[in-house]
Amino acid sequence: MTTTNKHVTGRNGGRILIDALRNNGMDRVFCVPGESYLAALDALHDTPEVALHVCRNEGGASYMADAYGKLTGKPGICFVTRGPGATNASCGLHVARQDSTPMILLIGQVARQDMDREAFQEIDYRRMFGEVAKWVAQIEDASRIPEYVNRAWATATSGRPGPVVLVLPEDMLTDETHSADLPAWQPVITAPGEKDIRRVCAALESAERPLVIIGGSGWNEEARRQLEDFADSWQLPVANSFRCQDYIDNDHPCYVGDLGIGISPALTERVKNADLLLVIGARLGEMTTRGYSLVDIPRPQQRLVHIHASAEELGSVYYADVAVNAAPAAFIAALNKVAPSGEPAWQAQTHSARAEFDNWNKPIKVSGNIQMAEIMDWLGNAVPDDTIICNGAGNYTAWVHRFWRFHKVRSQLAPTNGAMGYGLPAAVAAKLIAPERTVIAFAGDGCFMMNGQEMATAAQYGANIIVIVVNNSMFGTIRMHQEREYPRRVVATELQNPNFCALAEAYGAYSEQVTCTEQFAEAFERARAAGKPALIEILLDQEVISPNTTLSALRNR
User: Do 458 and 428 touch, CB atoms closer than 8 A?
Assistant: First the structure.
């Protein structure tokens, strides 16, 4: 980042915009080019210190920007053109909103003199994105660009992080002005007071069956280590909210499981029977609470201690006995300085909960030639602890969430809004950001087809990811619900797929197909050694609809 930089000569709006973004720390851009923001693209031509990645669809670009925000804690920057481009990018905007990811979506717009005439590709983005973004603004005056960019950066990163939309009329970007740059925005971290820590500790001391639930955003490796120290000191069982499994080392003796897809029956009962929930960073959304059935609304049956970086989230759904407005990392750092007054009474419960998790996490046998649990177990032992696992949505994700063990913060990139097609673009972004790390994208056949074209982006920029396509020739999650609610009335869930291996090779990737468990290990090693993006297709029997049931069992209930 640079300091204030006053320019004596005029600059056009595109140049001022790129300088303002760069001044705040922008080092990477994901985009699909458009004529509506050519002046900004032209400025990027003369800004080689910013890596520019051209994607094949605005949805993929916005997913990549979201993945960047998750991995770095800085706003992911995405440029798209007006109308259809902005509409395509809305998928990633929704992911960033529900995942609390800092992101700035910059949209080219029609010229100011043409507005409100339904000009070519014109949309009012303040109305279109007002619900899904933290702030939507249209910059009418090029001299105010530094002001808008700094506010966008502040809004995207403060409190509960999230996406911001800046709309850029194309003629504004070509206006020249002598506007000066601003100093880079400095993040504001909310920290707990001493009274807050005393109240939380008092609540813990009086509990008999406490459970810690971690989630949200704003986590880092130091927070993970301090959380583990805190859990050790107090012997507290720790679970994670939906798709936040990487916030604690899953091999830590106090980690007891994942509150999300395919939650274990034992952990379900522990949430219900807890007398205290210490919730750090999580919102306690629908997926984490199994449709709000595990935690009553508005007054939980458990005593609730809720810590969140956004004051607006506290009390918005649940009444909390103790509410603390603090960022998770700052709260854990303060709490970790306080030791329990004696040996925790629930120590044996924590050991039992961990044993239940270990039992639930063991590989299981299902029908057919593919044993996904065994594949996950082998893979977990074959790759480094900092491997980044990415996925979108579908029943295939249940194998990842149940049988993979995460060890490092931000080694899991998965959308809490259940967006299909997220995993592959997220993996591309992750490999570009951290080329030294192994990056694996899991996708179902339906999920892959929603953004499979970003394999071309991976090949173009040398992002040597490994994509594992679990192919059962159907939209598995919808089929599961369909068979449960309307047995034997299959409609709209069968898929006729392309040859995934041939498709991958057409993009310039290495590929193999796996039809039995024993083939996977050697196929993966060849993919890892290929020196280019790779795809492994696993043919999974349709009967194996999830780790817990089969299609026949659903039909015969």
Answer: yes
- Smallest CA-to-CA distance from 416 within 548, 545, 285 is with 285
Q: What integer pLDDT is reported at residue 119 of this predicted model?
A: 84
* 170 sits in which H/E element: helix 170-174
How many beta carbons lie within 10 A of that of residue 362, not counting itself? Answer: 9
Alpha helices in 24-137 (DSSP H): 38-45, 58-72, 84-99, 125-128
Could you read off the pLDDT of 5-36 as tens digits, one per residue? 444 468 999 999 999 999 999 999 999 999 99
Mean pLDDT for the chain? 95
Q: How many C-beta atoms surround the C-beta of residue 51 within 10 A?
A: 14
Whether 166 and 134 have beta carbons less than 8 Å apart is answered as no
> Quick one: tokens of 433?
């950001």
DSSP state of 114: G
The pLDDT tens digits of the residues spanning 493-517 come to 999 999 999 999 999 999 999 999 9
Tell me the torsion sign for CA atoms 277, 280, 284, 289. negative
For the entire predicted model, the pTM comes to 0.96
- Omega before 328 cis (within 30°)? no
For the segment 531-538, the average pLDDT, to the nearest whole number, is: 98
Backbone angles phi, psi at 107, to 5 degrees: -120, 125
The number of residues making up the chain comes to 557
End-to-end CA distance of the chain: 61
CB 69 within 8 A of CB 96: yes
